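Entry 14. Structure prediction run on the chain below.
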Amino acid sequence: MPSPSLAELVRSRTSLTPDFPEPGILFRDLSPLFADADVFKATVDGLTEPFAGRFDVVAGAEARGFVLAAGAAIAAGVGCLPIRKPGKLPPPYFEEEYALEYGSAALQIRDGILEPQRVLLIDDVLATGGTLAASKRLLERAGHEVVGIAVVIELPELGGRAVLPDIEVVSLLA
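Output returned:
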């Protein structure tokens, strides 16, 4: 019997919750994936392998992106740059605001903790692309070169890839 593909493993370890956090949203929770060491490692490897040798640090947005980026950084032997929600970092920091379907949000990274680096940006889900586009702009404002974006799940029907032109985007499950 053949072993399951990485996409099948991700699908099998993703919990679906309808109408969360609001009606009409199907929430994809990766907690079961994070709890399975073998599948978590395979996921981290799947996110980093397409960019091997092209990045010096991994960045991930709060909160699930933190988990993935930390695992990827350890596996790749590089540092991890957390992208935080406002109010979580002391100054100095860079901040990037972006629009949501239901308002606006912002992201921050510390200023001065790293010289400009080649960054692999990782997150759990690519939906409309707002968080990843804002994260990319934020990293570039801080002087970093974003070499690619890797996500576990992409929701192509929401068009997020279209707001990320001119950057390689890899998804493990679409």
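The mean pLDDT is 94.
Filed with the rest of this week's runs.
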